[in-house]
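User: For my dataset I need records formatted as: sequence, then structure tokens, nothing else. Please produce one.
Assistant:
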Amino acid sequence: MHIVGGQETPIKDGKIEGNNISFTVTLNFGAEVKIPHKATISGDQIKITYEMMGQTAEIVVKKVK
């Protein structure tokens, strides 16, 4: 699940290839919008990138030690 606006949104089309992850999240703003995400696992972190409305965003999640 992916949290958007405090609501859970299903992750679809998930793939794992080595250290790479990809998945799609579908949001509904009056019309469905599919947002593909790509992620790379490196050490204790995962870097996730996605593009929405022409803007690229990046999220980095790190393992808490």
